[in-house]
Amino acid sequence: MRKPLALAAAIVASALVLAGCSSSGTSTSEGGADDSIYVGSLYEPQNLSNTQGGGQGVTEAFNGNVYEGLYRLTDDGEVEPLLATDAETSDDGLTYTITLRDDVTFHSGKALTSADVKTSVEAVTAEDSQSARASAFTVISGIETPDEKTVVFTLSQPSISFLYNLAYIWIVNGEAEDLTTSEDGTGPYVLEDWKQGSALTLTRWDDYWGEAAKNGEVVFNYYTDATAQNNALLSGEIDLITSIQSPDALDQFDNDQYTISEGTSTTKELLAFNDRVAPFDDPLVRKAIYSAIDTEKLLTSIWADYGTLIGSMVPPTDPWYEDLTDVNPYDVDLAKQQLTEAGYPDGIEFTLDTPSYDPHPAVAEFLQSQLAEIGVTVDINTISADEWYTKVFQDRDFEATLQEHVNDRDVVWYGNPDFYWGYDNADVQQWVAEAEQAATPEEQTELLKKVNEQIAEDAASVWLYLYPQIVVARADVSGYPVNGLNSQFFAYDIVKS
User: Fold this and answer.
1) What was the pLDDT predicted at 32?
2) Helix boundaries (H) for 63-134
3) How far is the C-alpha of 245 from the C-alpha of 439, rounded, in Å?
4) Which end of the chain is more exposed for a tag (fewer CB within 10 A), N or C?
């Protein structure tokens, strides 16, 4: 699940102040190995821990930069070893023996050991963990550390995605304390400073075990609206924007002073129902809502010619993608008929908990207008990102909500009835479980396509659109990632010419 994101052409044009921006200086320094890179972002961390609700912002700034995993997901979505050098799997698929690099130390100077890996995994799977990936590791029945460089994972059942899932776990010094405000990772940068509400500064760590960062420091400047961020790039205060938030903003960068890169996104904009409560416990009601929404018009109003329509939780980059946009077509008459069949000929009324950051306010107003045509009254309740996390994700105290989900391969969350949206389908749960125990990727793909088709048929949620991923940078800046994969933003190759 993703962070507080931002966008919407309907909103960004109205805010012209540089609200919430950093005062860390301008980006006009000459290119060089010690250069400072100034990054504009709308996703300030809630805290600095990925197991205590730090959100998208901490992933963007820290993943691969400050913290590393046993494995890494590249910008192309491939899994490659990082802190691990070797992995042996038993014939029955229940034991993974992983060997660690022997030249790695934490920023504090402590050498990486298997005990740190064990405590890092246990932090993700702990009862109080707020990691959205925690359920992926319930398959672990034991972790042994026979020596300082060997970790042995015993699984209760085979898990074809186990190494892929390990790429999401940051390896943290097991002796570190208060990781919500500090860090002790193994990555190419250390945390220099975090001025909350303003900027977070990472500096190159000279004792890094791998290839040194190509720049001296990276400063994430945080903004409270997209227009302020765009103005910062135009004024030279920042060097690049990790994800542009409105197509209307692109014209001002369409010249030889800037580079516009369109990459691959995995971020889905969802109208998520609480499937546990009436009337959304009835698939017919959910399907009626879905068919009453002109998603193509919505996407165009927000993103013009950018973005993609999807008919389920799976983006085209996932192996089990298929085009399901026709399963719940835009058809107002069909929507009215389905609502009547469900026992609501006079319509329904519900509260839509809407995060206050873009694009959600504009999307909420669009949905409110569209659903009124079938007699559905939408009461918009605007809440902050923190309120959303507590009210919706933790307490499940909602009827419907808007949220963006950034991760790839996250269709499996519909196999977890305890997830915040409460979708509960026994077949889907069985297919997800079988897919994870599949003997081959082909078998896994076949099963997850069945999951994909079923949740679309049940309208488990409304998948409004897939975000575009557009990075805008000054023309003299290069080496930045262009794909929006799981919120990560590897900064170590960024240089100025």
Assistant:
1) 64
2) 114-125
3) 41
4) C
Q: Give the amino acid at 353.
A: D
- What is the C-alpha to C-alpha distance for residues 472 and 250, in angstroms, rounded to an integer? 8
- Sort 251 into a burial class: Cβ within 10 Å, 0-12 / 13-18 / 19+: exposed
Question: By C-alpha distance, which of 247, 241, 254 is closest to 467?
Answer: 247
Per-residue pLDDT, 122: 96
Q: How far apart are CA 310 and CA 82, in angstroms?
A: 33
Show the low-confidence residues of the chain (pLDDT under 50): 1-29
- Find tokens 């399907």 and name the residue: 287
Q: Check residue 265 and give its pLDDT.
A: 86
Residue-by-residue DSSP string for 415-481: G-TTSTT----HHHHHHHHHHHT-SSHHHHHHHHHHHHHHHHHTT-EEEEEEPPEEEEEETTEE---
pLDDT digits (tens, 9 = 90+) for 406-417: 888 899 999 999
Which two structure tokens, joined as six digits, stand for 340?
């009547």
pLDDT at 280: 98
| 303 SS3 class | helix
Residue 261, both tokens? 């890169």
pLDDT tens for residues 248-303? 788 899 999 999 998 888 889 999 999 999 999 999 999 999 999 999 999 999 98
Distance (Å) of CA 83 to CA 86, 90, 174, 177: 9, 21, 15, 22
Query: Do 320 and 448 meet the contact criterion of CB atoms below 8 Å apart?
Result: yes
339: tokens are 């609502």
- Residue 241 CA to residue 438 CA, distance in Å, equals 40
* pTM (two decimals): 0.79
d(CA 267, CA 313): 10
